Amino acid sequence: MAIKNHIPNSLTCANLLCGCIGIKFAYEGNLLWSVYLIGAALVFDFFDGFVARLLKVSSPIGKDLDSLADMVTFGVLPGVIMYQLIFKADCFHPGWHTVINNKPLLPYIAFMIPVFSALRLAKFNNDPRQTDSFIGVPTPAVTMFIASIPLMISDPLVRPPQQGWTFYPPLSGVLDTLSVFSDTQTGLPIPLGHAPNFTDQIFSNIYVLIAITIVVSFLLVSELPLFALKFKNFSWADNKIRFVFLICCVVLMIIFKFAAIPLIIILY
Fold it and tell me: Which residue of 3, 42, 139, 213 shows the fewest CB atoms closer than 10 Å?
């Protein structure tokens, strides 16, 4: 078999590998590296289909492998990230730990995301309406929305260290380090509730996180028609809506940085 036949599947496997390693980092509480790996997986996921069409080597095995990889990277991994955000929300708001202690099963709501992602992927593989467009929000879009949350609540540029407090070094675990300060006298962590900003207050709220989980799970299997970001060629006439959307994405990212990601998903 020609080497070119293996190139798309190799890219799909790279997507899967990113998802597996991302789950490992997420369970350790290092959500920043999980988000970085999701970013890499999105690149591999975009180019595996594009390369398969370019080389004309699409196959049923490649389609199944793509769904299996997506289930891990864009199904299980965002579920684990949301679980960690809900479970450790007491790092951000004093008193949230009481809610978790009284309702210990509450964080497990996050695993609605992998369940509905599996339903979404199964429907996609067997729905003839979804060859050139989508019915329901694709799993990568939901994953991007969830992955943006750790980025928005851990940005030191919008929350500089205050006098007498030590800011932890970057990339050492967004929930256990980046997202909290420590008192230089006692060494105890200081919740973000003492240095809040808008995104911290919104996206570190347990009930907001649970509401997001329920809404995105519904959107995964909804009958909402959406265009696909699949380029069969790069002509303006065939891809006008895609190019306009990508231009809007770039503008929003320049203006709002990480906070643009939820806006982009809503725009989509």
Answer: 3
